[in-house]
Amino acid sequence: MKKILITGANGQLGRALQKEYAGEEDTKLLLTDVGVEGIPALDITNLPEVLAFFEKEKPDVVINAAAFTNVNAAESAWDAAYRVNAIGPRNLAIASEKLGAKLVHVSTDYVFDGTAREPYTEFAAPAPLGAYGKTKYAGEEFVKQFSGHFFIVRTAWLYGDGKNFVRTMLGLARDHDTVSVVHDQVGSPTSTLELARCIHSLEPTENYGVFHGTCEGFCSWAEFTEEFYRLAGVETAVKRITTAEYPTPAERPAYSVLENYMLKLTGGYQFADWKDAIAVYMKEELAGK
Questions:
Q1: Fewest C-beta in 10 Å: which of 55, 61, 175, 280?
Q2: DSSP 87
């Protein structure tokens, strides 16, 4: 029986991973989160607690889907973001290595500054802009330092079962004739179901290293909104604005397109096109209403 520990199990990716692994009789999922009723708590920022948990449960694979993801809040909460995004992965790497367990660590496009003119491959030099990106990159470096059996998967513009951009914008459409959405930030909207399938395909292998994992193709936030509004039959108009017209505490990369280069080079999982993935998601969302 293979034991797979999923941290952040109640988040969007955590829920998608549970769905992905459902029905596998030879796999036992160890679900953990913090402050979620019905799911055992594991504070990944506390090394003694992590070591004790690993000693008791002895996972074979660890999938770290826990993160401090509030990009704006991270600017004024550096310590909290660093503990979760950097110290947490460090602790998981230390504990995983002690047991000989594989570690899948989920990272982000925010490790790049967004000044590129072509998609970032895994060989591009990270240059994060703000607290979120810098703490996530520190987490990557700790994983590389302390784990000998790791998969780092960078993803972007994630949406799934939970609070996300799609549901927020659909909510706004109910009360607004027009919504303003930035058009000068470009990336690849990525379904958690697609990312979960990618992780599931990687973790049984020894194809270790850093991977980019996003849906194929790219668009702006405004174009993304227009597409899922179209799929939902929403008539609310999308006003395309610039980042300067919608200032936020954290600077965001203007160009976040990742190339899944290593997956393609090594015969790994091939992601769906972003339009196909959002169509699947919207079909499920609309069916649930």
A1: 175
A2: I
Catalytically active residues, by annotation: 132
Looking at 83-133, which runs of residues are DSSP E strands?
A: 102-108
E strands, 90-249, in order: 102-108, 150-155, 158-159, 178-182, 186-187, 190-191, 209-212, 219-220, 237-241
> How does DSSP classify residue 111?
G
Does 255 score more than 80 pLDDT?
Answer: yes
Own/partner pairs for 225-228, CB < 8 Å, 24+ apart? 225/169, 225/179, 225/181, 227/275, 227/278, 228/166, 228/169, 228/170, 228/278, 228/281, 228/282
Measure the CA–CA gap between 196 and 204, rounded to whole angstroms: 13
> Tell me, what's the pLDDT at 247?
87
Residues 93-146 have pLDDT tens digits of 999 999 999 999 999 999 999 999 999 999 999 999 999 999 999 999 999 999
Find the DSSP H helices in 147-211.
Answer: 165-173, 192-202
Angle at 101 between CA 100 and CA 103, to 5 degrees: 130
* Predicted TM-score (pTM) of this structure: 0.95
Q: Report helix, strand or coil for 191.
A: strand
Mean pLDDT of 211-235: 97
